[in-house]
Description:
- The chain is mainly alpha-helical.
- The chain has twelve helices and no strands.
- The protein has helices spanning 5-13, 19-34, 40-67, 89-114, 117-131, 145-166, 171-194, 196-201, 207-211, 213-236, 250-262, 266-292.
- It is globular.
Amino acid sequence: xxxxxxxxxxxxxxxxxxxxxxxxxxxxxxxxxxxxxxxxxxxxxxxxxxxxxxxxxxxxxxxxxxxxxxxxxxxxxxxxxxxxxxxxxxxxxxxxxxxxxxxxxxxxxxxxxxxxxxxxxxxxxxxxxxxxxxxxxxxxxxxxxxxxxxxxxxxxxxxxxxxxxxxxxxxxxxxxxxxxxxxxxxxxxxxxxxxxxxxxxxxxxxxxxxxxxxxxxxxxxxxxxxxxxxxxxxxxxxxxxxxxxxxxxxxxxxxxxxxxxxxxxxxxxxxxxxxxxxxxxxxxxxxxxxxxx
Length: 293
């Protein structure tokens, strides 16, 4: 049955990646609530901005990976709208620009809470989303995609959300950004692990292409280990034992590491990609609940 335009664009949004935008805003807002500074309107605007940057980045990835030859008929991952001929390249480019403009508009509204310095953070976030696969030095093609995700979907997103509501940055804010960034980067690890052959053929020098799948598995496990150590650090810094709620997910995290090590088919890795996003969402929910409690 032929897909409707709405179904095509929903697929292009890449829903499995959206927890990477939602989780840090939830965490930063929970920290603000813990410190008595929660602002619902500001939190909602931060969520809107984060989602728009994520979607704009996904559209840019869809467009530029096709233009650069990384997405072809040999691709084994989820379907890409432009490469599949469902959306014209020019249409996807206009959609990308439109979403980034919308993100910029939301960011301008946030200046009411965060002041002019927030403009620098917002512009840097949008520019990095574009530069992930676009521009003369695309981050993903240089092996810097993991760094981009860790910084902007971890430290910056959590810190920016908290700063907009509380007007300051704390050590806890930085610490809370670490697991968000690492678990979001693990989504990218699984994605690049699956696409290593086609990425190498397109000269997309991801960390998996540069260092191999064994190193990717080590990165994945190390990121999990550090992420699940952070709640214990919060406990040592005087927070109540509720912050240890994410540790209930350790068996699930371990099963993900084992599944990646098994090196199954593309279909198995696609399923793991979605489950890695779910792990990030569950971790953020439990961590946020622990902070509020």
